[in-house]
Each structure stands twice: as structure tokens, then as C-alpha cells.
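Sample intake sheet
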Amino acid sequence: MRASVLLKSSLLTSLLVISSCATTKYSEDISKNDYSNLQAGRMYVVTMKDGSKNQKMLFRNIDGNNLIGTAGKKDSTVVTIPKANVAAVRDSRKAKTTAGAVVIGAAGVAALVLSSSRADN
């Protein structure tokens, strides 16, 4: 009985983690990349292809081959990132929601496993 509950709980947890991906990855060919899913006024974390430090930006618009934004909601420093340097863009709000969902799901699975192990005794 315990193996069945553990199998079901691990399957549920893995489905939750897989289905809640919040990163959009971009290929080497810039012409194939679609940046239309980026929304103005949202905070994004941009991962660079060259491995340099991830850059946070409040996205504003696309100007030619550059992503334009500001350093933050309160910091109006202009940030310009060339599309050729972008490896992935992550919506920080979705990432926080995903992390919260994973924590809640893990707590639920732990409660299920704990209650089933007590029921077996």
C-alpha cells in the first residue's frame, strides 16, 4: 500500500513541476525567435548566451534588434539588450508563482504520505 501511495505522490509532484515551466528559450537564429510574447510593464530575467550575469529588466519594447527596458520599477536606468545575446527570458512573476505551487504541492504530498503511513500501522 505504501509503495502505491509513494508512486502516486511522486507522479503528481513530477507532473506539477513539468507543467509549470516559466521560461522561454531562444535559438541561435534570431529571425526564428518570436519576442511577441513579452509584455510591456512586466519584470523579466534575461539569461545571456555568453554566460554573463543574468539581467533583470522591466520590459518596455523592442527596437530593431534590441530589447529595451529599465533596470526596475523604481530604477529608471535604461537597459538595452541585443537579441543576439539572449538565450532565455524568464517571467519573474510566473517563476514566483511556480515556486509557491511547488512548495504547496510538496507539502500536500508529504501530508498524504504521512497520513497513509499512519493508516498502515
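Comment: Residues 44 and 104 are 24 Å apart (CA to CA). The chain has a mean pLDDT of 76.
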